[in-house]
Write a structure and sequence with these properties.
Chain A: This is Serine kinase. Chain A: It comes from candidate division TA06 bacterium DG_78. The complex is a heterodimer of chains A (119) and B (147). Chain A is of the alpha/beta class. In chain A, 35% of the residues lie in helices and 20% in strands. Chain A contains five helices and seven strands; from the N terminus they run βαβββαβαβαβα. Chain A has a five-stranded mixed β-sheet. A two-stranded antiparallel sheet of chain A has the order 1-3. Chain B is of the alpha+beta class and 147 residues long. The longest helix of chain B is centred in the middle third of the chain and has 21 residues. The termini of chain B are close together. The mean pLDDT of chain B is 96. Classes of the chains: A alpha/beta (119), B alpha+beta (147). The interface between A and B is medium-sized, with 23 and 24 residues. The structure holds adenosine-5'-triphosphate (ATP) and magnesium ion (MG). The site of adenosine-5'-triphosphate (ATP) has 25 residues of chain B, from helix 2, strand 3 and helix 5.
Chain lengths: 119, 147
């Protein structure tokens, strides 16, 4: 794997993600990725400007992304965020994207494209 | 050493309100950003405030978070009225959680909140009375030389 800097917009295009919120922030550069469905784990271990891969779609994910200054959230497995989540994501300027892929496939592809984890 | 208080604000936290959970922490983060606090300090305050706020939402009826900014430190006090903690040593252990099935489905209940608060604090105090409530006091030092 060769490390490469990606902007959110490139990730959206390469992996055919649907952008649910935060279209105006897709210029953001991604520093790496973190995958977890446990919120206090993400609070403890994600890094600034990470892309966060999760299956959680409830409103609290927006607070976590905002507080940790994450680049954006990708919700996997064809899941959709709650309406309230989308509303909050607009308010806080958090990009939320969705993917049809399960976590393993999506993260494998992200890694292959040059996005690394936090270690 | 006495030092001057620069800013003080209070926030209300409603138990059980998972929709607005985290908003007080976001407000605190924004305030600290506006007054130019170092970003590493803000990240630590954000973790501490969020985990404390979520615990009020999950385990208490109502709570207050008080933010004090001094020239040499940030002080957070969180007090709630709620179920309280029977065994604080046990609650502090990583992985210990009494979160309900519903909360776990939302990704809460890893039992990492209190350990993360402690890890990110310079001074951490917790007091609790069963069936009354819980109080946390957290200090994070600002490393400015003239503080
Ligand atoms: N304010 C509180 N009032 C009552 N009980 C609490 C409070 N805060 C924590 N506890 C108790 O301590 C346990 C451990 O708290 P901690 O924050 O470490 O983990 P958690 O909240 O269960 O999971 P996580 O924070 O990882 O989502 C809780 O499950 C709960 O039993
Ligand atoms: Mg907790």
């Amino acid at each position: 794997m060769k490390k490469r800097k990606h902007k959110l917009a490139e990730i959206v295009k390469i992996f055919n993600l649907e952008v649910i919120s935060g279209k105006e922030f897709l210029k953001r550069e991604v520093s790496g990725g973190y995958i977890s469905d446990l919120l206090s784990d993400v609070m403890a271990n994600s890094q600034k400007d990470n892309i966060w891969v999760t299956l959680q779609g409830h409103p609290n994910i927006v607070a976590v992304a905002k507080l940790k200054e994450l680049a954006g959230i990708i919700i996997i497995n064809r899941r959709k965020p709650d309406g309230e989540t989308v509303k909050k994501a607009h308010e806080e300027g958090i990009p939320i994207m969705t993917s049809d892929l399960p976590a393993f496939e999506l993260v494998g592809k992200l890694y292959e494209s040059g996005i690394s984890g936090t270690h | 050493m006495q030092s001057k208080i620069l800013l003080q604000q209070n926030f209300e936290i409603k138990g059980g309100d998972f929709i607005n959970a985290g908003e007080s922490s976001i407000k605190i983060r924004n305030i600290l950003k506006d007054i130019g606090i170092d970003s590493d300090i803000i990240r630590r305050v954000a973790i501490v405030a969020y985990e404390a706020e979520m615990n009020v939402v999950m385990y208490a009826r109502h709570g207050k978070m008080h933010l004090y900014v001094y020239s040499n430190k940030i002080l957070l006090k969180i007090e709630d009225r709620g179920q309280g903690i029977k065994d604080i040593d046990l609650a502090m252990q990583p992985g210990y959680s009494t979160a309900t099935e519903e909360m776990r489905e939302m990704g809460f209940g890893a039992g990492m909140g209190l350990p993360n608060i402690k890890k990110n604090s310079d001074v951490f105090n917790i007091n609790s009375t069963i069936r009354e409530g819980t109080k946390l006091e957290i200090k994070i030092n600002l490393n400015n030389k003239n503080g």
